[in-house]
């Protein structure tokens, strides 16, 4: 078997192969773009070929920025289009491609890779761990009344905005630049969020609201008329489904929620991709108004260079831990002293006794602050070697807010 990099000339073969791997057929091109593979970077993709040159596997990466705790932006390789033809599965093709890909990413100087897992059991083998989570919130409209805030000094938002803001309904085709600008402001402050390069918006490659699928967009503007949030939605059979809600603060999200709850001829509202700890559920007059479902993992994280990754993110308290890290897929085992002072980390090899022993996939899960180390200790994945080690790790690895990722790739 040969694994080789692709060029633009390989696009059709690559697309046909990955579709065959999933038993699907490529979509018919849509006027104005919209095909997800149009955003592929062919110089970051690869094909696995048999000895006689037949393509049997694909894998690629996108060039993204990932927002870390502390609002630090770092490059991250977004692994995508991974597939092996059914006739060649369980023959080592996938493992060979993943090993080749990780080696290539390291050679490029990259220290983080991320992905969305089609099947959860697959990618833990290659050192990826689930790091952000998402859920669906379904709200019957007759139960959607929001309570008056109880905190002193918090004013109740009017029905169409927050403070002196306003909401305007536009068609998706009318507000592409607004969506791109608002999303970019949002993702820079949200741990776990990925960038959406301009070419994605220009090519309309992805899922709504990036794609050309017909959608209405509720755009929120602040008192000065500057867009600071949006909700992309469609209505079918009395259900208003919000594909994506982007808000630069909680008051804007509340204003957009009030807007969709007030839509006529709607029996229920469904919010896709809501963090499990989002405050909206607490804002209902009836706490049981919102039904949470589809709670699942979203962004998976893999560290390629532990010291660089740990020193890149922000930290919110001082302390130190000795981490004993096993990376069985790459055949590596290292021990590091993580020291945090004044929000900055130093991470160096050490021979001190470990505080925690963990797999590289476990480190990926706790890296963004969305999974508590103590949870993985209780699950039997991380070993704490002394009392208090897990509690200290929880405090050190926490983020300023829960990490969340909305971008599909």
Automatic annotation (TrEMBL):
A single GO molecular function term of this UniProt record: aminoglycoside N-acetyltransferase activity
Ligand binding (acetyl-CoA): 82-84, 90-95, 118-119
Annotated keywords: Acyltransferase, Transferase
GO biological process, one term: aminoglycoside antibiotic catabolic process
Residues annotated as the enzyme's active site: 123 (proton donor), 409 (proton acceptor)
Alphabetized SUPFAM superfamilies for the sequence: Acyl-CoA N-acyltransferases (Nat) (SSF55729), SCP-like (SSF55718)
InterPro entries: Acetyltransf_17 (IPR041380), Acetyltransferase_Eis (IPR051554), Acyl_CoA_acyltransferase (IPR016181), Eis_dom (IPR025559), GNAT_dom (IPR000182), NAcTrfase_Eis (IPR022902), SCP2_sterol-bd_dom_sf (IPR036527)
Domain named N-acetyltransferase: residues: 1-152
Keyword Transferase among record annotations: yes
Xref: Pfam families: Acetyltransf_17 (PF17668), Acetyltransf_9 (PF13527), SCP2_2 (PF13530)
Entry superkingdom: Bacteria
Family: Belongs to the acetyltransferase Eis family.
Subunit structure: Homohexamer; trimer of dimers.
HAMAP family xref list: Eis
Protein name: Enhanced intracellular survival protein
